[in-house]
Each structure stands twice: as structure tokens, then as C-alpha cells.
Write a structure and sequence with these properties.
Shape: globular
Order of helices and strands: HHEHEHEEEEEEEHEEHHEEHHEH
CATH class of the largest domain: Alpha Beta
Oligomer: single chain
CATH architecture of the largest domain: 3-Layer(aba) Sandwich
Number of domains: 2
């Protein structure tokens, strides 16, 4: 950015403010128009095993399947501990019979790699690694191996453009962490065997509950493979060598929050009301398009994703590319980025948009379907103002 471009940035706060300043990447913004009155029918004080509450749990499963267009022969269940719990259940229950490839390109996918290598201690584990902003070399994925990967890097703003790198003739299972992709990106179900997500991302639900989807191939592995390690109760998906079918009919392993269940149903009904998956994807992509247009005209901000085809439409990660910023040492860069985010929070126009703690200094704006594009557009001039304020300090 030259001096004239820097001088053109706003030195006084913009007038228009986002109607909803919540741009956190998890828990994420509630759906437009949400109020606690929407949860008035929650089965509070009831056993989750009673007929009515159990029907609500089953409804979450059914509506989720319908919105996502999940194949009819897949199973879907509600499991403990958010997306993390769902992923760990899959790793601990299914891995072992084959060599496994893990794509590690941001913090959560690196966590899965560390768990597989250091906790499960699988000797035939291969970590295909890339730094923030990039994807590993997808051509190295071996179809004879199991595969573990995140469809979208929540902390890096990088997503796979498609699943073409996965062989349709694969021998191994494919375990996909889709927590910041499901309901905002089109998942290629025939190329996947396990898909996980949580309620707290694209539909703006409350935390602590995960969703675990299994293909017939994954079920066959569960019923034919006995892990070599002890399995905690909350990880057990089989009983007597057969899949525990009740988990996939709303009979949860542990006690769920019926208030969160009602909130999940509210989000799913809203999703169906805005056009289902087509509507949700369209809303997220419109948010990215607004940021993309702004980035194209910005002299100081760019996408953390190096390849434009892999820029996320949910966890939109920005880096600072101005000469002033790049001339700073690493500590000063981190401090400057934090001051920009702090200014926006102090003004009440954007909460929780600092880059993830392990990511390069920058900003992270959630663009999932519950975020209105009008709020994204209102936010962008504030980013210019906050940057100019910090640079000029």
C-alpha cells in the first residue's frame, strides 16, 4: 500500500453498523430473527428417553438428513462432545486395519494427526502436511489407505475445492471432519464414509453435541474390526459385534440438553425455510463474494488461502499484506492484528474476529449461512477504519 492509498482509508468511524456484530467462528451467529421464544416448546425437565423428547431427537436426525441430502443407506446419530467427540469416536472405533493418510493443514486437522500418531500410535500413519493457507499435495493420497481430513479448515480459511482427489474405487475408509462445511458447502457423499459436524457452526446452534454420519462401508468396518485399545463408554458404537442401532434413532449414548435440541430444531426449520441446502450454500457464498470484492479493492488485506479456488465461504481468514505491516517483526505484527480486532470489539461492530491463536496474525470473519450479507457489507468499511487507525497510531 502506498502513501496515497493509505491516506484514502477512513480516519473517522463509518456511520453504518452491522445489525448483528457476531462474527465468531464458533459458537456462531444465531439465525436471523432468533429469540429465546423460539425455544418455548423445549422438553425441559423430561427424560430424553421418554417418548416425546426422544421424538425430538429423532426429528433432529431426520431434518438434518433431509437438508443435507444424505444417502438413504447412511446412518446418522447424535453423539457427545461436539464435532471433536464425533471425530474421536470415528478415529478410535474405525482405524487400525489399514494404513492411514491424514491431511494436516490447520490446527484441528493437526490435532487429528497427533491423536492418530501419538495416542493411537498407529505405525502405518502418514501425515501429509501443509502450512496455514495451503493444502497438502492431494495427489499423494493412497486409495488403499484410510483417509482422515477436514473438508474446510476452520482456523485457516482453506477448503478442498471438491472430492476429486478421492478415488471412487478406494479400498480404505474416508473420515471427513465437516464441522465448518456441512450446510454451507456441497459434500460429495459417494466419496466419503464418515462425516462429522456440530450444531454450533453453520446453523448457529448451541455447543456440546456432535453429529456422526456413517456409510454402509463404515458400518461394515465397525462390525468386523475390534480395536486393539480399550474403548470408553461414550465411544462405543457397537454392542455384541453389531452396530448399536439405537444411537441412530435418537437413543443418545449420554444425556443431551433438551434445550439445545430445541435450538437445533429451530435452526433446521429455518434452514428448510430459506431453501434448504441450496439456500444455505447461496447465503454463505454471497458472504464470501462480498468479502472477495472488498479484498480485490483493498491495499492492505488479502485471503490467507493462497489458491483462490480454496478460499472458505464460512471461516473467511484474512492476512495483512501492507508494506507497513510486513516491515514489523513477528511480535509487533501479532500485536497490531490484535489491536485491530480490539478496536472493532470496542466499537461494538465485530466480536471475536481475531485470527485463531495458532494461525498467522490477521482476522477471521465467519460467513456461514446465519450471517446476513448486509452485515458483512456493513462490517468491511469498519475493517478499513480499524486498520488505518492502528497503522496511523
Amino acid at each position: 500500500m502506498d502513501a496515497s492509498a493509505a491516506a484514502a482509508l477512513p480516519r473517522v468511524p463509518p456511520v453504518t453498523r452491522p445489525a448483528n456484530p457476531n462474527f465468531s467462528s464458533g459458537p456462531c451467529a444465531k439465525r436471523p430473527g432468533f429469540s429465546l421464544a423460539a425455544l418455548g416448546d423445549a422438553a425441559l425437565g423430561r427424560s430424553h428417553r421418554a417418548k416425546g423428547p426422544k421424538a425430538k431427537l429423532a426429528e433432529v436426525v431426520a431434518r438434518s438428513r433431509a437438508v443435507l441430502g444424505m444417502p438413504a443407506d447412511w446412518r446418522l446419530g447424535i453423539v457427545p462432545a461436539s464435532d471433536t467427540g464425533a471425530v474421536e469416536m470415528a478415529l478410535w472405533s474405525l482405524l487400525g486395519p489399514r494404513a492411514v493418510d491424514i491431511l494436516a493443514f490447520e490446527s484441528f486437522s493437526q490435532t487429528w494427526a497427533d491423536d492418530i500418531v501419538k495416542q493411537l500410535r498407529l505405525a502405518d500413519a502418514r501425515v501429509l502436511k501443509a502450512g496455514y493457507g495451503a493444502l497438502p499435495d492431494l495427489a499423494q493420497v493412497d486409495p488403499a489407505h484410510d483417509l482422515v481430513f477436514a473438508w474446510n479448515g476452520t482456523t485457516s480459511g482453506v477448503r478442498v475445492a471438491d472430492a476429486d482427489f478421492i478415488s471412487g474405487e478406494r479400498e480404505g475408509l474416508v473420515i471427513c471432519d465437516a464441522t465448518s462445511a456441512a450446510f454451507a458447502m456441497r459434500l460429495d457423499w459417494p466419496k466419503l464414509d464418515v462425516v462429522t459436524w456440530s450444531w454450533q457452526k453453520v446453523l448457529g446452534g448451541e455447543g456440546a453435541h456432535g453429529m456422526l454420519a456413517l456409510s454402509p462401508r463404515a458400518v461394515a468396518r465397525l462390525e468386523s474390526h475390534t480395536p486393539a485399545w480399550p474403548m470408553p463408554k461414550i465411544f462405543r458404537l457397537t454392542s455384541g459385534g453389531k452396530i448399536a442401532e439405537g444411537i441412530f434413532r435418537g437413543e443418545t449414548i449420554n444425556t443431551p440438553s433438551m434445550l439445545c435440541v430445541e435450538d437445533a430444531l429451530d435452526g433446521l426449520r429455518w434452514a428448510q425455510g430459506v431453501g434448504g441446502l441450496d439456500g444455505l450454500v447461496g447465503r454463505s457464498e454471497a458472504n464470501l463474494a462480498a468479502v472477495r470484492e472488498w479484498v480485490g479493492a483493498s491495499g492492505w488485506a488479502g485471503f490467507l488461502a493462497a489458491d483462490v479456488a480454496t478460499v472458505s465461504c464460512t471461516s473467511i481468514c484474512l492476512k495483512i499484506v501492507s508494506p507497513w505491516f510486513l516491515a514489523l517483526d513477528a511480535a509487533a505484527q501479532a500485536e497490531a492484528a490484535k489491536r485491530i480486532a480490539a478496536l472493532l470489539e470496542a466499537e461494538g461492530v465485530a466480536f471475536d474476529i481475531g485470527a485463531y491463536r495458532d494461525a498467522p496474525p490477521g482476522l477471521r470473519i465467519w460467513g456461514g449461512a446465519t450471517v446476513e450479507t448486509s452485515d458483512i457489507k456493513a462490517l468491511l468499511p469498519w475493517l478499513d477504519w480499524a486498520y488505518a487507525t492502528v497503522e496511523g497510531a
